[in-house]
Amino acid sequence: MDVPAKNSTLPARVSVVVPSYNHAQFIETTLRSIIKQSLAPAELIVIDDGSTDNSTSIIDRVLRECPFPCEVIARENRGLCATLNEGLERSSGEFFAYLGSDDLWLADFLKARTKLLARRPEAVLAYGHAFLIDDANRIVDATSRWANYADGDACRMLLETVAPMSPTVLYRRDALMRHRWNESARLEDYELYLRLCAEGEFAFDKQPLSAWRRHARNTSADQRLMLDEQLKAQREAAKRFGFSEAEIEELHRRTKFQRAEDFLRLGHKSQAARLMLANLNGARSFTSAARMLVRLALPFSLVRGFKESKERKTVEQLGELNI
């Protein structure tokens, strides 16, 4: 479905792609967050990657109200990276952003990110902090509370497995066209970030202008997959950066030790314990190792109760998003 632009004076600079897959519960909120942008995109391309729910009918209905050129493509499932590459090929804007069909943007996202990239010609992308939200749009966390993001050279940050969350990123199209998404990767952005950081800076904006939705079907819930993909991407990147085999192994030990905390957070204590004990020399300090040992000794019900209490306080402090 093609919808003609209702306002020919809108800046024609940003292409937006929504890769949609079985998010009928959330897709309308996602699309409306794009339609409400204070800086309208030049085009919106929604690619439904073989959804088996009623996502496409919702997309069709919402896009009838879209005030700028938009298109929906429904086809068989090909995977996220293939979908993003297809969206990149079909788009033409100077800047490119994609928004997962369960995530959302605050109204000034595109305006703020395009201004930042316009000021930073050496940057290949712009990104920032994000809220983490639940199914009811309540804020349960924010990356500003724990993510030590870098502005400029992002190589060290990425190798420490700290990476931009996808709904916070606006890419410069020419850099993205030279790299694209690796369709054999199952963790779509991390490997791409490692390639892009060798070409240019990452421009950081501390404003939280997007929201990543946390629910049971997130890929990030599969910590084994996340770890395996990160280690593979790190090895390839480290070779390009000229790391020795010993330096790569040290990097992997640090990553595995850090990942032990994620396994523990999800209740996988035995896997967390194996990772931690096998990679103790990957701990940043004696204090971090001791803290992990204490958490492993505590019953998971106690750890989970503390986490839920922290989330309740966050909801009370930050509430629901104004969307």
How would you describe what is shown here?
The protein has 323 residues and is α/β, with parallel strands linked by helices. Among the domains are: 1-102, Alpha-Beta Complex (Spore Coat Polysaccharide Biosynthesis Protein SpsA, Chain A), CATH 3.90.550; 220-318, no CATH class. 43% of the residues lie in helices and 16% in strands. Helix 1 (27-35) links the parallel strand 1 (14-20) and strand 2 (43-49). The radius of gyration is 20 Å and the shape is globular. It starts with 13 loop residues before the first strand and ends in a 5-residue tail after the last helix. Mean pLDDT is 88; it is low at 1-12.
Question: What descriptive keywords fit this protein?
Answer:
323 residues; alpha/beta; Spore Coat Polysaccharide Biosynthesis Protein SpsA, Chain A; four-stranded mixed β-sheet; 12 helices; 43% helix; 16% strand
How do the strands line up in the largest sheet?
Answer: 3-2-1-4-9-6-10
Helix content: 40-55%
Give the biggest sheet.
Answer: 7 strands, mixed
CATH fold group of the domain at 1-102: Spore Coat Polysaccharide Biosynthesis Protein SpsA, Chain A
Overall geometry: globular
Strand content: 15-25%
Within CATH, the superfamily of the domain at 1-102 carries the name Spore Coat Polysaccharide Biosynthesis Protein SpsA, Chain A
Count of alpha/pi helices: 12
| CATH architecture descriptor of the domain at 1-102 | Alpha-Beta Complex
Mean pLDDT: 88
Order of helices and strands: EHEHEHEEHEEEHEHHEEHHHHH
The radius of gyration over CA amounts to 20 Å
Strands, count: 11
What's the end-to-end separation, in Å?
26 Å
